[in-house]
């Protein structure tokens, strides 16, 4: 079965990778790699100040996009 994250799951409240939870638990300065089969999100990163970024795969490169924790709540 394919694994979907909370940002792209086609099913209501059903997903294998909870990006909000991952972002919440991450310590500052740490990142976690994820492998979602539904979208191009490949990592969640929290910087030293607690700002959260999603690492998206674009043209074979990971690009960081700043997001707010509230935006990740599904
Ligand atoms: Zn996804």
Walk me through what this model shows.
This protein is 9% helix and 31% strand. With 74 residues, the chain is mainly β. The chain has one domain (19-72). A four-stranded antiparallel sheet has the order 1-2-3-4, covered by helices on one side. The protein is globular, with a radius of gyration of 12 Å. Zinc ion binds at residues 4-5, 7-8, 36, 38-39, 41. The site of zinc ion (ZN) has 8 residues, from loops.
Question: How are the secondary structure elements laid out?
Answer:
Elements (H helix, E strand, L loop, with lengths): L18 H7 L5 E3 L7 E6 L5 E7 L2 E7 L7
Zinc ion binds next to loops.
Extract low-pLDDT stretches. Answer: none
Give the domain tally.
Answer: 1
Cα Rg: 12 Å
**Total count of strands:** 4
- Give the biggest sheet: 4 strands, antiparallel
General shape: globular
Number of helices: 1
Structural class by SSE content: mainly beta
Q: Which quaternary structure do these chains form?
A: single chain
Q: Topology as H/E string? A: HEEEE
Overall pLDDT metric: 94
User: Strand percentage, roughly?
Assistant: 25-35%
End-to-end separation in angstroms reads 21 Å
Strand order of the biggest β-sheet: 1-2-3-4
Name the ligand types: zinc ion
Helix content: under 10%
């Amino acid at each position: 079965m394919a694994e979907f994250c909370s940002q792209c799951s086609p099913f209501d409240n059903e997903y294998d990778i909870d990006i909000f939870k991952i972002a919440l638990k991450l310590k500052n300065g740490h990142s976690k790699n994820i492998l979602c089969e539904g979208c191009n999100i490949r990592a969640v990163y929290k910087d030293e100040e607690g700002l959260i970024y999603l690492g998206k795969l674009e043209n074979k490169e990971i690009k960081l996009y700043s997001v707010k924790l509230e935006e990740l709540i599904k």
